[in-house]
Structures are given as structure tokens and as C-alpha cells.
Specification:
Elements: E1 10-15, H1 18-26, E2 35-37, E3 48-49, H2 51-54, H3 64-70, E4 75-77, H4 81-96, E5 102-106, E6 109-113, H5 124-138, E7 143-148, H6 151-158, E8 166-168, H7 174-180, H8 191-199, H9 205-209, H10 213-220, H11 223-230, E9 245-258, H12 261-281, E10 286-295, E11 300-311, H13 314-325, E12 334-344, E13 350-355
Parallel strand pairs: 2-4, 7-8, 9-13
Antiparallel strand pairs: 1-6, 1-7, 2-3, 5-6, 9-12, 10-11, 10-12
Helix pairs in contact: 10-11, 12-13
Amino acid sequence: MSEPVVQRKIIHVDMDAFYASVEQMDHPELKGKPLAVGGSEVRGVVSAASYEARKFGVRSAMSGVQAKRNCPDLIFVRPRFDRYKEISNKIRKIFHDYTDLVEPLSLDEAYLDVTQNKKGNPSATLIAQEIRQRIFEEVGLTASAGISVNKFVAKIASDYNKPNGQKTVNPEEVVHFLEELDIKKFYGIGKVTTEKMYQHGIFTGRDLKSKTREYLEQHFGKSGGFYYNIVRGIHNSEVKPNRISKSVAAEHTFNENLTSEIFMQERLERIAGELEKRLKRYDISGKTITIKIKYSDFTTQTRSKTLPYFIADRGLLFEYAKDLLYQERLKDSVRLLGISLSNLNTEIKKTIVVQLKFDF
């Protein structure tokens, strides 16, 4: 006889406006004020926005200029990634008091499998409440959580009662919960795919569920099978601690747009140095090098080269990045450059992006 399938109890914990909340905690004079971490009113991109700023439509990845236009009273602060990592480590220690099956997605969110947990508590809902309370008491920040039978539903649920709330989707509620959901709220379905689904008359989970697997695969390719399963609550991905990087990257947005390739070359050399540090820290090397170029009109271009051998040395990274820079003519002035290394000498799982902290 086959082994019975164990129904998992998964919690997705997501810190509320993490970077901005850390800044408001460390600087009480910023509490209650619209705040953007990163960018400025003349340059750069917003990394995170406080809830006060979000009321004005300020969002992460928005240009500083647009953010200031949306919210004239917006306050910009420089990111302090060392501080965010310090706080994140404190939060993860709390997670590990309950389970060793912790899968961080970033500094501010993680999956926890509490099917079997160190507290012997059969209720994932109560565990999530206790974790959130401890984060508030021991760290000083609020977190939201989603609780369900798999990572996909837990991730969606964690966004349901933000900020400082949680939602449990019990096993018998999963299908109905997904049927009623707006398709744009499905995790992993981005803006472009949402628009395409709208064109096919798919506006809710129920609409998606009405389509056959063949139809979805015909119109959405390999992702069609994934969409067919998730709307039925089928998502068997395990919580995997120690996720290993898919690629390692370093990038920087410049204070002024660059037009000279000589200046860009100087920046690439420094970025290559930062990338080398990251690679050596994790003893990683790779075969595929990619440079990322973001132009002044915010369009992005990538250029890649795959080598017959692994590299991690600053000099080689720089030389190949420089070759890619000169591969073809630049179409406009440049606001951001980045170098990434993939096709790594390790198991592939996740992308690490390092935001450089130095000024050019």
C-alpha cells in the first residue's frame, strides 16, 4: 500500500513595509510620515515605501521623481542593508524556535513548515500568532502571516489582512478561496500575464478553473499546467531551507546618467570587484556572465556570454563585462549597470542581487 499523503501546515511570514519600518523604528521622528527608502526626488528608484507613502501611490521600483510627484511631502532616506540584515537575522532566530524548515525568500519574508514543530503545537494559526507577537515584542516591528496547506496559498493569504494581520485558509476552504480570488492576486501571475488572461475571459480563479489543461497549455505554454494545478489547490513544492543561488549579481544606479563608455568601464570594474567579494564569500563560480544596462528612458537591456570554464576572479569578470559593453552601440545614456554570474558550480535555486552601497 502507498504511504498516506501528509497534509502540510505552511506559514508565510511577511514583514510590513520592512525597510521603511526599520527606519521609522530607528528614527522616531519619521513615524507617521510618508517615507521612501532609496532613490531621491531627482535620481534613483524607490526600494521600499512606508504605508503613509503608499496611500499616495508610492511603490517600490518607482522612480524617485514620480514618487515625489505623487507625494510632495515624501521623505527619502538612504538604505542601510547591514541594519536590515541584522534585524532579519533576529527574526529568523525566532522562526527557528518553532521549526528548522525555514525557507527565506528575502530579508523580510519566509516560509515555515510547522507540520511537525518544536513546540508540539498542532495549530499553525496559533503558531503564526505567537511568532508575530514575539517579533513585535522582541524586535519592535509588525508582521503579517498567511497559513494554509501549501506555499502558494499561504503566500497569497499573507497579503490578505496587511498590515499586522493574518489569514488562515483551512484545507476545506482552499478551492473556494482560489475560485473567488481576482486573477491578478494569484502569486506568480504578473501584469503582462494578467492582461493576457483578461483577453481570454479569465478574471477570477473560477474563470481559470473552467479552462482545460490543454487550453491553458495552448495559450500559456509550459505555465499552463502550473495554472491548471494551482487553481485547484495543487502545489506540492516543499519548504526548502538552505536554498542555493541561481545567480549572483551586483548593480548600481548612478547619480547622473552616463554617456561615456570610458566612465562606464570604470564603474564596471568596481562592480566586478563587489561581485567577486560575494562569490568568494559563498565559494561560488559560474560560466555565464551577463551585464545589465538600464537606460535613461528606463528600458533595460542584457548581454550575455557563456564560457567553457568557471570564473569568479575580478579581473576576468571585468574583462568579459567590458567585452559585452562594447558588443554593440549603446542606444542612450545609462542610469544603471550591473554584472551577474549564472550557470553556477552549485545546485540552482534562487537569485541573489547585491545592491552596491558605495557612491561613484
